[in-house]
Each structure stands twice: as structure tokens, then as C-alpha cells.
Amino acid sequence: MTTAFTRDRIISDLAEVLDLPVDELTEDVSLIDLGLDSVRLMSLVERWRFEGAAIDFVDLASDPQVGAWLEVMGAE
After folding, report:
1. Can you give the residue ranges of the Carrier domain (predicted)?
2. Beta bridge partners of 30
3. Strand partners, 65
4. Domains and CATH numbers, the chain
5. Which residues contact 63 (CB under 8 A, 6 or more apart)?
6. pLDDT confidence of 76, banded at 50, 70, 90?
7. For the chain, percent of residues with pLDDT exceeding 90
8. What is the mean pLDDT of residues 28-57?
């Protein structure tokens, strides 16, 4: 299964795992500052890979900002 990873979808998934409102996830915010830890990151990576994303843990962990993740994920 391959899913389109839109900006809204990625931000929605992040908001869900961080238990935050979507509007707190601006492109320049640090996900670490918002409570992202390695367990949550790994769950997102696994979910997104299952849905067709060609990413791994290091791709996202190396720059834990929303904007960087949108770029890595090729968000439309």
C-alpha cells in the first residue's frame, strides 16, 4: 500500500502522537521541544514505512523539525 504524504497528513499524524493541537506544529518548531521521543519517532517511521514511505529513523531524527520532515517525506 502506498499513501500520499501530504503536509496536512504528516502534521496530523505528528499532532496525534504528540497529543497536541495541529496549530502548534509550525514548520520551524522543534519536535523534541514538543515531546517527541525515540519511541514515538519509531512508531511514526514504522507506520509511514508500512504505508509506502521510503524513510528510516535516521532520516527524521537527524533534523527533528516539522519543515525538515515535510521535505524528507516529499510532502505535497
Report:
1. 1-76
2. 65
3. 30
4. 7-72 (1.10.1200.10)
5. 69, 72
6. low
7. 79
8. 94
